């Protein structure tokens, strides 16, 4: 199991879009990858759970957590090989851990917790909740956005990880993100 949750080292900066559901992470990851002409890693949990919903009309269970983690890491490792200097990750295993602990009263599989402690990212963009929540088959917590946002922010602070909170329209967020990348990494 642990080998399948091992992050590959690459010759690229790894930047994570991080935060609650429906806060523009996917949009921003795509925008940044297009702007910098590089790769982005889709959120594996979304495609996995959408397929489960479409086929079985069921939502996430504890049995889904490790397959989701394995799929996310496999996708990231594959994209790391193709990245052109930077890789933009639409979430990572720490996001999965935060959601596990939120939905399962502090519980998360040991393998995921251990894996998150060994992963390295250069920067996190914590996406604010100032944009409208949009309903879909998988989103279920429109009224918990503030609480969930604080959980994400606290997880970054507790680990002393580098992060910037992004707010505003998708254009404003892209501008904030590129300005921060240029400032931090002189790109």
From TrEMBL:
- The name under which this protein is listed is ATP-binding protein
* Organism encoding this protein: Rasiella rasia
Highest taxon, organism lineage = Bacteria
Could you tell me the keywords of this UniProt record? ATP-binding, Nucleotide-binding
A GO molecular function assigned to this protein is: ATP binding
Ranges for domain NadR/Ttd14 AAA come to: 14-173
Q: Name one Pfam family in it.
A: AAA_28
């Amino acid at each position: 199991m642990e080998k399948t949750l091992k992050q590959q080292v690459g010759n690229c900066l790894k930047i994570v879009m991080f935060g609650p559901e429906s806060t523009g992470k996917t949009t921003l990851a795509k925008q940044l990858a297009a702007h910098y002409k590089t790769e982005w890693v889709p959120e594996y949990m979304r495609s996995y759970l959408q397929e489960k919903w479409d086929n079985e009309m069921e939502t996430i269970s504890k049995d889904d957590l490790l397959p989701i983690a394995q799929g996310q890491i496999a996708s990231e490792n594959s994209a790391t090989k193709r990245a052109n200097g930077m890789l933009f990750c639409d979430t990572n295993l720490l996001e999965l851990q935060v959601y596990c602990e939120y939905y399962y009263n502090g519980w998360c599989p040991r393998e995921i917790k251990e894996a998150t402690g060994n992963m390295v990212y250069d920067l996190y963009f914590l996406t604010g909740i100032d944009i409208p929540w949009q309903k879909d088959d998988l989103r279920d917590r429109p009224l918990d956005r503030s609480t969930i946002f604080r959980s994400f922010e606290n997880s970054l602070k507790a680990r002393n990880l580098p992060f910037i909170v992004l707010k505003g329209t998708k254009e404003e967020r892209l501008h904030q993100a590129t300005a921060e990348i240029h400032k931090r990494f002189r790109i």
